[in-house]
């Protein structure tokens, strides 16, 4: 969608230039910069007809940052939109003129901020600042390389933000961020061509960048890091395997068989399973380092679990556990294998042995604010216009006051479910525990837990010295049991709360009224793997009003259904849900969602782009179907190497 | 071997803490300690590498790896093989060998017509109840060549089938007609099975069936079926479920007398019976038509010999289906000629379907000669025929679709002169066969494609449109569903 004035959010600065200054100060704060750095920043200085100067800023993601000229052109587009008449500013008609505008992006490899500033009427300057706030001077070659690095850095942020927040529905908590689809914004070349072209130059430095936490606490290596992860995601989404493989083969000449880990992964995620399986088999002989072997075994374990072969998956993950017992992921697959085999006893025992204390340290990449613009402590004002180019009443005109009212009256039983706040690894293992309780039932789970783990009253019993023979026998029995890890014990308590809410709803004791309440019931059912109940709850809530969270969860359920029992009806439901979510994202200045692209890739593969286009056209207003075409279908038509049928 | 002496500290429920003389602290599971041990006890731990066990574990892991390779890394999907089972004027039935996936997973199986996606066969589509691994494609144009291909999409890549070229029959070629008289069909006193069989033989149709299959084009009845008869007559019900036109036996006789396929409109059981009077089965007419038929057949076969050279080499795929359906292909009265043909052209290279369709004399000769002059006249004639064929495929229940199909078919007919003209001229045909999709078939193909689009978005063939209708009904139900629950709760 073309840029328009009402699709640019703005935050008002106390003094012009405040945001950029604060950002530079915060560069020395490791928590602020993290592995991937803050999202890109745009700052604006403008004056009104009385020559009163106002400073404002917003964040942006997804742009092509490989070329300062391209950035300058985009900045000029922003100026044009801002100066378009009429200008609405906090409900009033104003007449601002832009004096200057700047764009700043973090270069992960050179650890510096790179800024392009446009002064009106026309000068452009670029500057580089390091973590200490010191200006850097680059020679011509260095400058060119630095912009290449900036490009890769940007793409890593754009995609990893979605990947690492996928489980939470990609909720972008910094609303004043304009998000473009990073795969559509290539200035000179397509983004996947550029990324694959630059990748070999930086492959050797990948481990420096840090690694995604979606694999628990696997260490950063040459083959497990944000750079490789981003490559794999780009290739998977854009179907660029033919372009990518020769590049990786060439890297193999320099770096050896380690590259097979990446190649095998590319095979497995791009419908070349047979080749992937063979390569993993051969590489296990060639690669002896336990960490890298474990990476291969994880690929193998995942493949086997997906192919419903828990017996072999168990063997692969057991080997992974043997080699790297400190790593979360092999244990995780081990538990999954036991659950799939119906071996609940070993599932619980291995769950209890998961290295959770080490695993929970990994942090997701998320967008961060330079200045607090949230809630009561807000130091600055937010200008959040309503984009008028796309109107879908139920979605774009959702009354936020109504939603806030729902929060005020929500049943506390629903609101206080702590399991809703589990993150990352804890969220994943809670899922496993829910899977076990689904198979076993609560009573039997408790019984099994008591057989395996030491209960509190038994622990007390041990403290008193046992005198009689019978007591000694009991003591011996108890000694054979293990201590239940505290976090594991806590999960049982959370599970109890969830189960209680679920049964109260099923028995009619609990009656959700608002969309929010339905959503909380739905989320509870979803956690408990009761997808049919969850679907009903979400759909009931969505009957009353739109909710992005309910829609995203509903989408996940529909995708599961589509996988197990494909039908055109589900395809159409998926389309409708995706269209609404697409409108919702657009209303909040975001034109990119990997969840939507992944969901729609399945439907488009099924129906072809033309058919999907027609279905959307016939059901939604023209502005909506144009948005969906531009943001979703255009991607499948033009940026996926002709993989999808028309 | 390493031997360590350790002092046991306070024994906890599951862990004891052991210390060494040089101040190592080791957490040790209580369960592994001797029972008599208490705080202050001293234990000795021997540590030794278990080479034997290590070797066993390694070997086991190796064998697991080989197992994984054998199970998932050696048997890949195979290219699907597509064959023609039958063709008529406006439809064809294609068949494919069982799909081999190996260890891979099926993502989809899609039929492509003229290089364009036509239908998703798997997953999702409710497979036609009549045929596994086969599919009827309706709504084709008369006397046009189509190219079909299957795309097998798996977790180990995409695999295209062979390309199957199907030439739909001319109006005068009735070899695709496949009539079924069910075992419970009451033919009444006016016509016998033998009369029907003889009439079918004369028009060169497939032998009479007593069981409805995917290939069945017409089902015979003499009484307007009521609900009771649909319940008791399984074959009748199958015909009706699959939108196969249910017609009076006189329809076959009409085809025989008119020497071309005639529309079914006048031969439905609820049609005005006065139209039937010209087409009663009589002993005399049977004899008369027999001699006429033989003369025609000779002419056909003569032509066929001339034309054979072309399809034989260029369309090898079509040779395959002949193998699988040999019983249908040779009508009895053609046997002598067939024998000659088979000598001239070794074995099964010339598909029965293609030979006659290209060669039917009445059509081809005049068209060739009037190519530059009176071609418009041809068009009109073809048009009239086509309007009737449109109805051949449809039964009264789907009459609404006729109006949707008709204008499309007319468009096709307008293109007709170009295509027939090129087909007759040997040189251009040859060249198109060789370089696949060169200019000529593309122009020819534009019309069927256009037809396809309208079908997908509006009506479709009788089969798929009825499917669509049920789907639409389902969707409505889905919309109501959550609401219902809401009110219940």
SSE arrangement:
The complex is a heterodimer of chains A (646) and B (489).
Chain A: E1 10-12, H1 18-26, H2 30-33, E2 40-47, E3 53-61, H3 68-83, E4 87-89, E5 92-94, E6 97-107, E7 112-119, E8 123-130, E9 135-136, H4 140-164, E10 177-179, H5 191-202, H6 206-209, H7 226-238, H8 241-255, H9 259-269, H10 273-286, H11 290-306, H12 310-323, H13 328-341, H14 344-352, H15 356-359, E11 381-383, H16 393-396, H17 400-409, H18 412-415, H19 424-440, H20 442-452, H21 456-463, H22 469-479, H23 486-507, H24 515-527, H25 531-544, H26 548-564, H27 568-587, H28 594-607, H29 609-619, H30 622-638
Parallel strand pairs in A: 3-10
Antiparallel strand pairs in A: 1-3, 1-11, 2-3, 2-6, 4-5, 6-7, 7-8, 8-9
Chain B: E1 2-11, E2 15-20, E3 25-29, E4 42-47, H1 51-72, E5 82-87, E6 92-96, E7 106-113, E8 116-122, E9 134-137, E10 145-154, E11 157-160, E12 164-167, E13 179-180, H2 193-203, E14 218-220, H3 227-232, H4 234-241, E15 246-247, H5 250-258, H6 283-314, H7 319-324, H8 326-329, H9 335-344, H10 354-359, H11 361-369, H12 375-392, H13 399-424, H14 426-434, H15 439-457, H16 462-488
Parallel strand pairs in B: 13-14, 14-15
Antiparallel strand pairs in B: 1-2, 1-4, 2-3, 5-6, 6-9, 7-8, 7-10, 10-11, 10-12
Helix pairs in contact in B: 2-5, 2-6, 12-13, 13-15
Organism (chain A): Kluyveromyces dobzhanskii CBS 2104
Protein name (chain A): WGS project CCBQ000000000 data, contig 00058
Pfam families (chain A): ChAPs
């Amino acid at each position: 969608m073309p840029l328009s004035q009402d699709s640019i959010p703005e935050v008002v600065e106390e003094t012009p230039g405040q945001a950029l200054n604060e950002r530079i100060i915060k560069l020395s704060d490791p928590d602020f910069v993290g592995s991937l750095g803050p999202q890109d920043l745009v700052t604006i200085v403008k004056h009104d007809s009385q020559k009163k100067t106002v400073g404002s800023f917003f964040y942006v993601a997804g742009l092509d940052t490989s070329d300062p000229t391209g950035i300058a052109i985009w900045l000029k587009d922003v100026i044009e939109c801002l100066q378009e008449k009429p200008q609405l500013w906090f409900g009033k008609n104003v007449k601002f003129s832009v004096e200057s505008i700047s764009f700043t992006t973090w270069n992960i490899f050179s650890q510096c901020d790179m800024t392009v500033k446009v002064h009106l009427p026309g000068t452009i300057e670029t500057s580089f600042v390091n973590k200490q706030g010191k200006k850097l001077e680059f020679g011509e070659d260095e400058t060119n390389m630095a912009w290449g690095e900036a490009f890769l850095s940007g793409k890593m942020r754009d995609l990893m933000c979605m990947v690492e927040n996928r489980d939470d529905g990609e909720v972008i908590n910094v609303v004043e961020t304009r998000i473009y689809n990073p795969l559509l914004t290539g200035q000179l070349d397509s983004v996947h061509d550029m990324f694959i072209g630059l990748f070999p130059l930086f492959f050797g430095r990948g481990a420096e960048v840090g690694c995604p936490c979606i694999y628990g606490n696997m260490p950063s290596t040459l083959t497990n890091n944000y750079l490789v992860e981003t490559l794999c995601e780009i290739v998977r989404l854009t179907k660029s395997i033919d372009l990518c493989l020769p590049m990786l083969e060439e890297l193999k000449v320099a770096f050896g068989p380690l590259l097979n880990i990446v190649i095998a992964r590319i095979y497995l995620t791009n419908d070349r399973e047979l080749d992937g399986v063979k390569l993993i088999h051969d590489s296990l002989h060639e690669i002896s380092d336990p960490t890298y072997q474990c990476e291969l075994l994880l690929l193998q374990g995942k493949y086997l679990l997906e192919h419903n072969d828990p017996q072999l998956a168990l063997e692969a993950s057991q080997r992974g556990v043997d080699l790297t017992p400190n790593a979360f992921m092999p244990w995780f697959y081990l538990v999954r294998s036991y659950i799939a085999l119906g071996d609940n006893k070993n599932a619980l025992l291995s769950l209890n042995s998961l290295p959770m204390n080490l695993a929970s340290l990994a942090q997701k990449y998320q967008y961060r604010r330079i200045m607090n613009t949230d809630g009561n402590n807000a130091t600055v004002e937010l200008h959040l216009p309503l984009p008028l180019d796309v109107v879908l009443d139920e979605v774009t005109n959702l009354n936020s006051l109504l939603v806030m009212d729902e929060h005020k009256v929500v049943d506390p039983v629903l609101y206080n479910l702590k399991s809703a706040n589990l993150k990352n690894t804890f969220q994943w293992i809670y899922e496993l525990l829910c899977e076990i309780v689904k198979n076993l039932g609560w009573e039997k789970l408790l019984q099994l837990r008591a057989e395996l783990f030491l209960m509190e009253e038994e622990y007390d019993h041990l403290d008193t010295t046992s005198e009689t023979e019978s007591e000694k026998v009991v003591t011996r029995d108890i000694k054979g049991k293990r201590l239940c890890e505290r976090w594991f014990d806590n999960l049982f308590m959370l599970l109890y709360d969830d189960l209680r809410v679920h049964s109260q709803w099923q028995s009619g004791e609990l009656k959700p009224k608002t969309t929010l309440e339905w959503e909380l019931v739905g989320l509870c059912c979803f956690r408990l793997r009761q997808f049919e109940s969850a679907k009903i709850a979400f759909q009931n809530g969505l009957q009353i009003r739109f909710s992005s969270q309910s829609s995203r969860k509903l989408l996940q359920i529909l995708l599961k259904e589509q996988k197990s029992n494909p039908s055109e009806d589900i395809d159409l439901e998926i389309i409708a849900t995706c269209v609404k979510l697409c409108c919702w994202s657009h209303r909040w200045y975001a034109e990119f969602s990997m969840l939507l692209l992944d969901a729609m890739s399945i439907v488009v593969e099924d129906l072809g782009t033309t058919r999907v286009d027609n279905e959307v056209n016939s059901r939604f207003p023209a502005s909506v179907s144009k948005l969906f075409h531009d943001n979703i279908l255009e991607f499948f038509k033009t940026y996926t190497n002709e993989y999808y049928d028309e | 071997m390493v031997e360590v002496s350790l002092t046991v500290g306070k024994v906890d429920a599951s862990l004891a803490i052991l210390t060494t003389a040089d101040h190592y602290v080791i957490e040790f599971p209580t369960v592994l300690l001797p029972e008599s041990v208490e705080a202050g006890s001293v234990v000795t731990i021997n540590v030794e590498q278990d080479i034997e066990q290590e070797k066993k574990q390694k070997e086991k892991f190796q064998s697991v790896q080989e197992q994984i390779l054998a199970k998932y890394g050696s048997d890949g999907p195979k290219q699907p093989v597509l064959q023609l089972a039958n063709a008529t004027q406006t439809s064809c039935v294609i068949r494919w060998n069982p799909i081999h996936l190996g260890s891979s997973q099926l993502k989809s199986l899609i039929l492509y017509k003229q290089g364009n996606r036509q239908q998703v066969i798997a997953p999702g589509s409710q497979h036609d109840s009549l045929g596994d691994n086969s599919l009827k494609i309706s709504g084709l144009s008369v006397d046009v060549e189509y190219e079909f291909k299957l795309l097998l999409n798996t977790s180990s890549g995409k695999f295209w089938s062979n390309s199957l070229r199907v030439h739909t029959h001319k109006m005068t070629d009735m070899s695709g007609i496949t009539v079924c008289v069910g075992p419970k069909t009451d033919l009444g006193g006016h016509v016998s099975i033998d009369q029907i069989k003889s009439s079918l033989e004369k028009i060169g149709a497939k032998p009479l069936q007593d069981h409805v299959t995917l290939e069945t084009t017409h089902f015979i009845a003499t009484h307007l079926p009521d609900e009771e008869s649909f319940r008791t007559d399984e074959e009748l019900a199958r015909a009706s479920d699959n939108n196969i036109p249910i017609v009076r036996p006189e329809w076959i006789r009409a085809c025989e007398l008119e020497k071309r396929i005639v529309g079914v409109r006048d031969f439905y059981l609820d049609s005005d019976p006065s139209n039937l009077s010209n087409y009663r089965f009589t002993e005399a007419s049977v004899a008369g038509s027999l001699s006429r038929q033989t003369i025609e057949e000779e002419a056909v076969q003569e032509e066929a010999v001339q034309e054979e050279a072309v399809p034989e080499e260029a369309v090898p795929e079509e040779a395959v289906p002949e193998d699988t359906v040999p019983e249908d292909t040779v009508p009895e009265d053609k046997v002598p000629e067939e024998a000659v043909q088979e000598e001239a052209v070794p074995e099964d290279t010339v598909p029965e379907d293609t030979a006659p369709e290209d060669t039917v004399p009445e059509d081809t000769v005049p068209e060739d000669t009037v190519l530059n002059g009176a071609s418009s006249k041809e068009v009109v004639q073809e048009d009239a025929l086509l309007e009737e064929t449109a109805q051949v495929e449809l039964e009264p229940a789907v009459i609404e679709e006729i109006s949707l199909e008709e204008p499309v078919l007319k468009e096709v007919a307008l293109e007709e002169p170009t295509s027939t003209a090129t087909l007759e001229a040997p040189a251009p045909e040859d060249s198109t066969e060789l370089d696949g999709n060169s200019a000529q078939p593309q122009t020819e193909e534009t019309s069927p494609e256009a037809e396809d689009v309208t079908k997908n978005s509006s009506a479709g063939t009788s089969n798929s449109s009825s499917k669509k209708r049920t789907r639409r009904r389902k969707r409505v139900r889905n919309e109501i569903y959550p609401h219902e629950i809401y009110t219940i709760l």
